[in-house]
Amino acid sequence: MVVKKKPGKPTGIDALKGSSRDGRISLRLHPDIKSGLAFLAREDGRTLSGYVERLFVDHLRAELQNHIEADGSMVGFPEIRFSSIRRR
Known about the structure:
By secondary structure, this protein is mainly α.
């Protein structure tokens, strides 16, 4: 007798497909920077990935004049004029 397994919740990348958080990025960091980020993430009660995502969202929100929602989605994207963003 063959027992079929019930389908469970998708995990890993499959769990995020179609969600608002299915984008991926890879960074190369000096080990000291990664250690510092890991320390700060633990202090903040977040995972390293979650902490780095929060840093990106907060920075982009400041740079794009608050057109970024808390989940990282952009509000009013067509109206944003990237040429009007201040350059350093």
